[in-house]
Amino acid sequence: MSTMTFTDALIAQGQSKENVATPQLACSSLLKALQNAGTLHIYADTADTQELSGLLATDNGAIWEEVDGNTVNQPLVKKVLAKYLDEGDLLHLVEELRSFQKGRPHQDLLPLLYAIICGRIGNAFSRCFASGRPWEVSLQLHMKLMEDPIAALQVGRDLRRMVTSAIVKVPFTPHHPSCMFVARDLEREGIPVNFTSTFSARQVVMGAVMANVSRTNIFMGRLDQGLEADFLGAHVSLEAQRQLLDLRGKKKIKTQLIVASMRQAKSFFDTAGCDAYTAPCETIQEFLDQMGGLIDQTGGLTVDIPSQIETSYQERLGISSTILTKLGPQTIARLYQVEHEFLDFLSEYCKTKEYAQLNDADALVSRFEQAGFKDVFYTPTTVEWEEIRRRKTPDPDASITSEISLDTLYTLMADADFEKHQAEMDRMIEEKISQ
After folding, report:
1. Phi/psi of residue 95, each to 5°?
2. Which helix (H) or strand (E) is 387 found in, with range?
3. Over 90: is that where the pLDDT of 423 sits?
4. What's the CATH class of domain 21-433?
5. Which residues contact 423 (CB under 8 A, 6 or more apart)?
6. Where are any strands of DSSP class E within 376-422?
7. Most CB atoms closer than 10 Å: which of 3, 102, 107, 294?
């Protein structure tokens, strides 16, 4: 008699049964120079193994060893979703899962089916590129799970069992503050978390102190794009990195920063020495293409890549005077400044027994409000959501931009974009299992 449970069946569907490739590893002098500046990880933003193969493959069939993982989110999964839907009998899978929990509606299965697809994606990358080393793949939870922290925790556990090298991406959702508990509790169980949808130094600090997450991010490209800036994203990233270095030294916090949403190869040079990077394949390729001007006759680098950890771009942000006038310099400064009072509040509160056992989102928001930091969390009205969903970056002329803290607004816009792609994939999956 079979003793397989619903969870066992779910996890088995996301695991890999194919052979593992073992390509030779080769060193890229330029990527190695970036690591010599202090960088620990270089990830590719992609859910497409063929796309990454095109980037990593060398002339002799080896792959660049310095790229040691990839990050996956909803827009990236959507690009490859049709391939994964066509590969397996999804209807049979749904029937199998329902045999354990009869009467369960399609809608309840969608976050689980999405997790299975993410598991298969993660295993495909590990199978193709790990080659005997740890391959870190960040896989993002279904966005609807942020409304149900208990379910989010379970699916996070399932993802880690499907893909043993997975880092579970938990998006910061200011409108669902229980995301903090999901990140905290997964890390307590030894499941590494990539706390994503973060745009400011204070959000980075919050994820580090409140949940001691393994990774968190600055979406630097969106910062520059939204405020038409030259060095704002780099400046925020470096300020966040310095905050984490200080916390690692003083409070034994392990959190590493990912410089994310990179648009240009120059960003690697501008922020060299940050813990980790994740960039689209074309941006990493643009960086590798710089090699031609930096090698000598022996094939070695003519220059090192200096660390920028102590660099400040505050006087070179490049934000237009029009945007500065509309938003005010203090509004923008809050992206990279962390008030001592905020850090003190987090540090003291997270030591309490109350926070250790807290699972009440309203109580968490109340604590932040009492401390004077209620703008960290925000639940938009229906009208505000309509405005937020119209754009990926803030409109300086929109009233909402002056009513919501800028980093919180950036986060809400990122989450809204992920939710849009999630809804489109849910429709694709439902169509497939309804045929």
Report:
1. -65, -40
2. helix 382-388
3. yes
4. alpha beta
5. none
6. none
7. 294
Question: How many helices, marked H, and strands, marked E, lie in the chain?
Answer: 21, 10
Q: CB-based contacts of 48: which residues, under 8 Å, 6+ apart?
A: 76, 79, 80
pLDDT digits (tens, 9 = 90+) for 253-279: 999 999 999 999 999 999 999 999 999
Task: Please tell me the distance from the alpha carbon of residue 225 to that of residue 273, in angstroms, as a whole number.
Answer: 23
On the CB side of 291, CA atoms within 13 Å amount to 16
Q: Which residues of 350-388 are buried (b: 16+ CB within 10 A; e: fewer)?
A: beeeebeebeebeebbebbeebebebbbbebeeebbebb
What is the distance between the alpha carbons of residues 28 and 288, in angstroms, rounded to a whole number? 8
Helix (H) or strand (E) holding 210: helix 201-211
Q: How many angstroms separate the CA atoms of 259 and 251, rounded?
A: 22
CA distances from 331 to 286, 335, 337, 371, 418 (A): 33, 8, 10, 19, 25
Which tokens in the block code for residue 348?
């003291």
Q: How many angstroms separate the CA atoms of 364 and 374, rounded? A: 10
Q: In the predicted model, what is the mean pLDDT of the chain? A: 93
CA–CA separation, 52 vs 67, rounded Å? 10
Determine the distance from the C-alpha atom of residue 30 to the mean position of all C-alpha atoms in its chain, rounded to a whole number: 24
The two structure tokens encoding residue 261: 């949403």
User: Are the C-beta atoms of residues 388 and 416 closer than 8 Å to each other?
Assistant: yes
3-state DSSP assignment of residue 80: helix
User: Tokens 């994939």 belong to which residue?
Assistant: 425
Pick the most confident of 1-10, 286-295, 341-350. 341-350
